[in-house]
Design the sequence.
């Protein structure tokens, strides 16, 4: 009897050992998984930044524009990782929302198109808002902007400005409030070869229309626009402010 008992005891020991090894393996796997998950979450930390935003509408192109300045940030923020959303209420009481992500193969800003109805065939074509200052490799203050300063191609750093203005020049070119009697509205240019083609019923969109919609001229001083910047990788809102429109 003694001999049989010893044989059974020896047979049970390997089973217990295997079970213990399985338990240890499962515990180690769980710890490694939790650690890896922590690293993954940490790599998607949303940036921390502060901004100052101004929107102006004087009724004319020269002093009507959008400017979002980066006051400070804890890291460079690629605009390709950001979504810009503007929301306001038009005169009919309907919300007007514009969402911009980038970079985009199809520009959101195009004018001086002539007879063309393809944005890529217009003389002035780019993605708004444009970037100026730190974080932008090359900048031009007017005319033909560099691809480097188009939305999606530059990064936000302390001192970077996101900026656009309404287009216009004079009666020949047309544009926003280009003549004294056309304040707060777009008109066609009298010279077809020079016309900006952004007026009523025309094919074309300037920077302000790209940011706020075709009817943005209703944004008179005192009206409010909600401006948001959303960090796409984390879906965190890093800027959210109701901005009161100013007189240029």
Sequence:
């Amino acid at each position: 009897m003694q001999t049989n008992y010893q044989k059974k005891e020896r047979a049970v020991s390997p089973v217990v050992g295997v079970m213990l090894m399985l338990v240890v393996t499962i515990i180690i796997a769980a710890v490694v998984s939790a650690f890896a998950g922590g690293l993954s979450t940490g790599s998607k930390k949303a940036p921390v930044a502060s901004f100052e935003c101004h929107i102006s509408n004087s009724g004319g192109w020269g002093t009507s524009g959008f400017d979002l300045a980066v006051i400070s940030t804890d890291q460079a923020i690629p605009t390709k990782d950001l979504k810009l959303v503007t929301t306001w209420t038009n005169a009919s009481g309907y919300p007007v929302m514009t969402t911009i992500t980038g970079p985009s193969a199809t520009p959101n800003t195009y004018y001086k198109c002539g007879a063309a109805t393809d944005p890529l065939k217009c003389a002035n074509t780019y993605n708004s808002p444009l970037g100026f200052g730190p974080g932008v490799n090359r900048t031009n203050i007017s005319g033909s902007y560099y691809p480097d300063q188009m939305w999606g191609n530059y990064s936000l750093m302390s001192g970077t400005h996101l900026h656009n203005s309404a287009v216009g020049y004079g009666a020949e070119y047309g544009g926003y409030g280009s003549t004294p009697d056309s304040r707060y509205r777009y008109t066609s240019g009298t010279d077809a070869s020079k016309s900006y083609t952004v007026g009523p019923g025309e094919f074309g969109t300037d920077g302000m229309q790209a940011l706020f919609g075709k009817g943005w001229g209703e944004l008179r001083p005192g009206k409010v626009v909600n401006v948001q910047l959303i960090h796409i990788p984390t879906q965190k809102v890093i800027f959210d402010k109701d901005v009161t429109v100013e007189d240029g």
